[in-house]
User: Fold these one by one.
Assistant:
Number 1:
Amino acid sequence: MASANAISQQGPVRFWDRLSIGTKRVIWAWAFLALPIIFYAGIRFYPTFQAFWLSLTNWDLLRPAQFIGFANYQKMFADPIFWKVFNNTFLYLIIGTPLSLVISFVIAYYLDRVKLMHGFIRALYFLPYLTTAAAMGWVWRWFYQPVPIGVINGFLSTFGIPQQPFLRSVDQALFSILIPAIWAGLGFQIIIFMAGLRAIPNTFYEAARIDGLGNWAILRKITIPLLKPTTVFLVVFSSIGFLRIFDQVYNMTSNDPGGPLNSTKPLVLMIYQTAFSSYQMGYAAAQTVVLFTILLIVSLLQLYVLREKK
Amino acid sequence: MRKAQLAGLAAGISFMAMGAAQAVEIEYWQYVFDSRVQAMDQLIAKFEAANPDITVKQTTFPYADYQTRVVAAKVAGQGPDVVQLFYGWTDQFVNGGLIKPLDPAVFPHAEIESDFFPIVSAMKRGDDYYGLPTAVRSLALFYNKAIFAEAGVEPPSNLEELLAAAEATTKRDGSGNITTAGITMDMAGQDHHWWREVLVRQNGGVPYDADGNVAYNDAAGAAALKFYTDLQTEKKVGLVGFMDEGQAAFRAGMAAMTIDGTFRLGAFAGNPFEWGVVELPADANGLRSNYSSYFANAIGATSEGEELVAAQKFLQYISSPEAMQIWLEVVGELPARRDVALTETNLADPIRGPFLKGLEYAHTTKFYDEAAQRQTSIDMVNRVLLEGQSIEDALKQAAEAEQAIIDQARQ
């Protein structure tokens, strides 16, 4: 009895001892990796697949979900508001991402050369990134007001320029929201770009100078190509950010969220309203699936376009 | 001797245990609004003093999350025992099984119908009442006395005088920009009620027919919409979005008039200027209308057994005349019982009087999805003001959109 126990206790120990150090390392690595994988599967993947299923039902939180096929998708694709929102989402993306990248690159490029108060200036650029989007949204919302309280319109009217409606215009509102959104993200992008610039070995620049290349040529032939990994990261990161824009829009238009007349409404806000104001969870899930698909395609496309050419 | 002591001790312990078993805790839910929470704290303290075996736990949520929380709690099977809800949510709450009908033995229908204002009927589905209000709200016209005195005008009693007063009190800068608005324009605030239940009726129409379908897409609706948008386009006495929100403009002393509800009294109490209240203006024939609404308290569907009994007691107390008087003093909302509301003191009160008079001819819109229906009114006005759509087309599109919401909700 006692000996049998001893053997069964020794069994696994012996098995473990028989493994090579390399195998043990792999097992340990997987043991540690299993934790985040299980967590991810439970917290991320399971709800994602659940959302695909929900998008085929008419769940409204209260009554049990019923399978209704593709009715949600039919309704969505026939809804002019959905297409308006779809269009807005892409406007945020195709204006926001390039503009913010160009501005942040230019700032990083020149800031890299500034020695005087370098840290202070960098901190100033980074500050908006630390600010709560809600607080910033409200401050900008008041900036955009008509006179007598709107700072920007007050400034315009002292120069005799007519007042602009900004957030109260179907044409200007989206851009009015985009400006603070770009400004808020600049700090982060500048820091990443500067890290990328610093990582380029100085010897490359020295060699180029010896060969007699001018600043523009150095920028074009050396700096920009070598910054590619940084750029790829920032393009993907900022695209996803603009595709998921919500805080700024919601806080700057909270009286009429996404308004006026849906001119600023992004997909995420539409999902939010469908789910938590109208409680049409199935319909909201269908919209989420569309957003997921867009994010997936955009990310894959960018990785493909900006891939390393070997 | 020892045994007797022990027996006594045992009896004492079991008695204490019984006492503990009898102490019921019930949960009361409402949304966060400072004065409402304070008033409820006072009511709970008084109720607990009278019912030492019941404790009431008040839980509050931000207004924007409130419905979601109630729904989520029901899904999780942990709903409140007594819950506050807007009368316009009743359909959703009843269909979703969030609240249960009031037991007629505890809340006799005859008593409800004789004691409360008739608008309480909006809580009735079939033969059952699903909740009782503590307070009701109505609309009135707030005016800034200083601006009125400066312009030398009197508070308006009809729409014509309203336009004249607005014109006299509007201030503009050299470029014609409004610096002080004659009247605030805020469809996202209370103006959509003013338009729907007051202006449409004053122009000879009705907002909804007897079956609850949209009925404002006619000449009356068009005239009402034109009157409203003309305030900005023709008369230039107001501007949608001026000072961000209508109530903010009035509070800052930058608007001479605003239409708002009783619930705003608390917020306006701290205004650094004198203001007054008059009934919503009548039309040329003296026809007046008003919109009345209320938050009711209902019993949660998950409340059972002794908690249900405690919840019923609590609901009885918070719908009692005493509770209504406290609510009136702390929150400023009008008592839902006729005899508590229509006292001589209240009717003679320069602030409460106009609101109480409004209750007598008020209508209560039967909303299916209040936020979405309000959005159709906001968009209707925006299409006229921002996109230059014609009044008739804007009205038609709004009517269709709102009818679609109603149809969807009835499915």
Note: DSSP finds 18 helices and 14 strands in chain B.
Number 2:
Amino acid sequence: MSAADIDEPGTVNPLGRAFSDAGILAWRTLKRIPRTPDMLIYATIQPIMFVLLFAYVFGNAIPIPGFPGPRAYREFLMAGIFAQTMAFAVASASVGLADDMSKGLIDRFRSLPMARSGVIAGRVVGDVVFNAFVMLVMVICGFIVGWRWHHGFGQALAAFGILLLFAFAMLWVGALIGLSVGSPEVAASAGLIWLFPLTFLSNAFVPTPNLPSGLQPVAEWNPISSIVAACRHLFGNPSPFASPDGFPAQHPVWLSLIWCAAIIAVFAPLAVRKYRSATSR
Amino acid sequence: MAAVEATGLVKTFRTRKDTVKALDGIDLEVPEGTVLGLLGPNGAGKTTAVRVLTTLLKPDQGTARVLGHDVVMDADRVRSLVGLSGQYAAVDELLTGRENLWMFGRLYRLRSQQAKQRAEELLDIFDLTDAADRTLKTYSGGMRRRLDLAGSLIAHPRVLFLDEPTTGLDPRSRLDLWQIIRDRVREGVTILLTTQYLEEADELADSIVVVDHGSVIARGTADELKAKVGGERIEVVVHDPAETTRALELLIGSLDITEPDSTTKDEHTRRITVPAPGGSSALVEVIRTLDTGGIRIADIGLRRPTLDDVFLTLTGHEAEQKEQES
């Protein structure tokens, strides 16, 4: 082997290189997961805990307008839990990249002849694969508490696709946060704190008709609500709206796709730009 | 052609409170196949210089070329030709040694099979084959540093940048690493290394550039720099603080010291130092003089010039230790 075996930078198709680098870094992200068993356990226990708490504690206290019966809330809940878990994926990207930065790994990667998007894309893709696993655990959990999909497996699969697309979009936001703060401790809280108002001011856990009227439009246009509504629509779960004639109620799937595309279009370039100038300390 | 050449590099960092000129017009030249030691205290701008030369930072002013390629305009080409090994081992703790090297090989655009083969070669060279399948969490500091260095050698770089390669290592690991670096030099690799230790620059570098506050304050070979400092010194600690002054006067007389400024004395620590041009023969003379003068010696030794001495001589102030480099 000699230096001649290495392709000259100009001879490699940049797009092919971006994909290949993302693939290598995604391999790295996934290799690491089973080696941090504590993180693996928390990442799966937390959503299970949410399912059980909301299903059994709040379930009887929150009526679903237009859908009477004790099982209505559990049917209503699962799409909300799925979307919340995907949104919280932000933290794994922000903590992961902040950790790489504090350990000098980002410097090392930046000194290599890699695609500029490779490190973040690898992180994001690896995390999406991991989130697919977490979702599988939650689906099983949902089945146990009595949630079902009613429009066939194909539509359910489409809903899971939208959820993973949403995770993919949110991970770019997490990447930007992680590269901006630079310390994993700060990244852990900075990555999550704004998600609480975002998820709770949505239709994820409380039907929007039950909210104060001033908050209803905010909650119905919220990107998380759009994901949740699209999933409820595809699963055939109860999906009450305060304004049933509005765009979010009429076109939940389209709105969810528009939101995902908008988030990616804004945050992916910002994250890559941040990476280009990111240095440790 | 010089493997590395930089002219007038300026880099300023703005923090909320003030602006710091990390590089204040630095010129560097490393001829191919030689080793340049960039010597200076923390905060001198060494790491910033390395980051500019390895394309991690864009300079505010000035230009730098590595093997003829501009580090700003032709950054990607530079990245494929150089290796960088940082101050702290930048390797993935949760991957094994073999996995780390394979990953870096792939990112240097080696095909999977070549990356595997190259990883094996390097594990062998760096004596890490036995630990190859353990995650790096279980590695010692010296092993991590070796793996980090191995990672920077994957693509057979013609220029290697080593940012404080031995800081924080135990003496044994330091010697091992020095040997590894010497082996690379023998293979014809051009090296720019930063260090806080004159001894390290002395051991490894063909020429040394001393930096402080982002500027070059001296250049030369190790011997030239040491000559500027005045070579070896004798350090004496006397038993009785009241006798420090008399002891120094006696020594100035017996050693024919013409420049009293080249001596130091501190009554508080009872310590005096004098130049020792004759090395150990001067040591004998000092002991004889003080003994004849009836001065009791608590401690005495021949001291080689340290970075502090170089700094004291070149700048008139001691090497300041700052927490932040950038």
Note: The interface with chain B takes residues 1-3, 5-9, 12, 17, 20-21, 24, 27-28, 31-32, 35-36, 103-105, 107-114, 118, 279, 281 of chain A (CB under 8 Å).
